[in-house]
């Protein structure tokens, strides 16, 4: 009797373990979301700024416009058969902002069959549209995507169009038997959610953690969750993600100045944040660009002071990690503070900047207050009749 009772209890337990292990490598489907103010909800999205033209595009059938003057732009996306979708801006009156928008929502290359969308909000300089729905015709079937669009006009010579993602994917995912919340963001706003790149502006974004978390990483080959490394496989349209434990990844060592207390670098492998020990960190083998560095310590007054370097441009901060030899990076202190003064007619313009060794912008805070905001410029002429002190704006 004891044997008969134990067999049906033991076998299902084995099956549960097998299914759980396999599910970690299967497609985990996410929910599509779209909102008018997606940027406010997500808090971390990029933008595209396609060139704005006043001449109608050749070969594109146009709708009936209300005003005498229109503007046109082409939003680039690999999801469209023709590589992009045309946008036309019109206005209901001959004066004011361009507050009517047409977009090639079906990707047929024409606008004559489209209906005008009215701006849901306008202010002195901008008209806002969204969420603007488009449908991509793919081999897997139609895929819906939403955009948010802003038309900006300060002067006639200063008109621009900005395109933001008006949608994202999110939902629960299983990571090593634990339920986490996953969010996928089309950061570079090209209609896909799986873009990897050395340049952070060209990489999409992913979050895996708490539902209200803001720990945003670059989409890459890997992601660290609870201190463990996983390979990622993300659907092009963002509909699902696959995670698998990465146990055979080669690592290399990076030597940093010992004053660095936090370091982050990203690339096609993803984004990694490290707390160096004696200036040493380990990263998966590959090419990276420094995302930021932090030096945190107390000053002579006992204040908690923080030096932080960010915004590396071009090839600044690019390095490669190999498993053959240690990589050394010269970042952090010393930093350089400079004052720029330019004369424009009878007036002078001035600004300050604090830069790191690689040209990155550096901020200095003590007990949470920005120290550079306290910088002043004292101007005095030879006779002493002019004697004034000004705050110095950042460059």
Instruction: Enumerate how many helices there are, as a single number.
Output: 2
User: What is the β-strand count?
Assistant: 31
Shape: flat
Level of helix content? Answer: under 10%
CATH architecture of the largest domain, by name, is Sandwich
Q: What is the number of independent domains?
A: 3
Q: Which blocks of ≥5 consecutive residues have pLDDT under 50?
A: 1-24
Biggest pleated-sheet summary: 7 strands, antiparallel
CATH class of the largest domain: Mainly Beta
**Radius of gyration over alpha carbons?**
27 Å
Hey, roughly how much beta strand do the residues contain?
over 45%
Which structural class do you get from the secondary structure elements? mainly beta
Distance between the termini: 83 Å
CATH topology of the largest domain: the name is: Immunoglobulin-like
Overall pLDDT, averaged?
A: 90
Task: Give a quick rundown of the structure.
With 395 residues, the chain is mainly β. It contains 2 helices and 31 strands.
Description:
By secondary structure, the chain is mainly beta. It folds into three domains: 22-28 and 168-245, no CATH class; 35-165, no CATH class; 250-395, Immunoglobulin-like (Sandwich), CATH 2.60.40. 7% of the residues lie in helices and 47% in strands. The strands form eight sheets. Strands 19, 20, 22, 23, 24, 28 and 29 form a seven-stranded antiparallel sheet that branches. A five-stranded antiparallel sheet has the order 2-11-12-13-14, with no helix packed on it. It has a four-stranded antiparallel sheet with strand order 1-17-16-15, with no helix packed on it. The longest helix has 22 residues, at 2-23. Mean pLDDT is 90; it is low at 1-24.
């Amino acid at each position: 009797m004891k044997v008969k009772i134990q067999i049906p209890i033991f076998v299902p337990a084995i099956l549960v373990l097998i299914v759980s292990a396999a599910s970690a490598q299967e497609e985990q489907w996410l929910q599509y979301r779209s909102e008018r103010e997606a940027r406010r909800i997500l808090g971390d999205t990029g933008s595209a700024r396609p060139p704005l033209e006043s001449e109608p595009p050749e070969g594109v059938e146009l709708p009936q416009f209300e005003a005498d003057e229109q503007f046109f732009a082409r939003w680039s996306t690999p999801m469209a058969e023709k590589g992009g979708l045309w946008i036309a801006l019109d206005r209901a009156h001959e004066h004011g902002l361009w507050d009517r928008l047409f977009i090639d929502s079906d990707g047929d290359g024409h606008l004559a069959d489209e209906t005008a969308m009215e701006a849901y909000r306008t202010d002195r300089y901008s008209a806002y549209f969204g969420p603007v729905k488009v449908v991509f015709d793919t081999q897997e079937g139609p895929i819906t995507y939403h955009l948010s669009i802003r038309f900006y006009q300060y002067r006639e010579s200063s008109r621009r169009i900005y395109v933001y993602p008006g949608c994202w994917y999110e939902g629960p995912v299983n990571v090593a038997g634990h339920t986490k919340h996953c969010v996928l963001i089309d950061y570079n706003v090209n209609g896909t959610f799986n873009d990897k790149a050395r340049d952070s502006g060209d990489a999409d974004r992913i979050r895996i953690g708490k539902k209200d978390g803001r720990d945003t990483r670059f989409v890459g080959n890997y992601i660290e969750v609870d201190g463990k490394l996983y390979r990622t496989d993300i659907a092009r349209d963002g509909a699902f993600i696959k995670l698998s434990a990465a146990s055979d990844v080669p690592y290399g060592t990076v030597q940093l100045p010992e004053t660095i207390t936090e370091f982050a670098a990203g690339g096609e492998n993803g984004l990694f944040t490290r707390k160096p020990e004696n200036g040493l960190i380990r990263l998966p083998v590959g090419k990276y660009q420094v995302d930021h560095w932090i030096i945190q310590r107390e000053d002579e007054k006992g204040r908690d002071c923080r030096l932080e370097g960010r915004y590396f441009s071009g090839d600044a901060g690019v390095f490669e990690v190999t498993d053959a030899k240690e990589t050394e990076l010269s970042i952090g202190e010393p930093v350089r503070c400079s004052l720029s003064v330019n004369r424009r007619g009878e007036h002078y313009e001035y600004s300050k900047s604090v830069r790191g060794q690689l040209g990155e912008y550096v901020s200095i805070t003590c007990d949470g207050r920005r120290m550079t905001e306290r910088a002043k410029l004292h101007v005095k002429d030879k006779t002493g009749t002019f004697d004034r002190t000004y705050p110095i704006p950042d460059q």
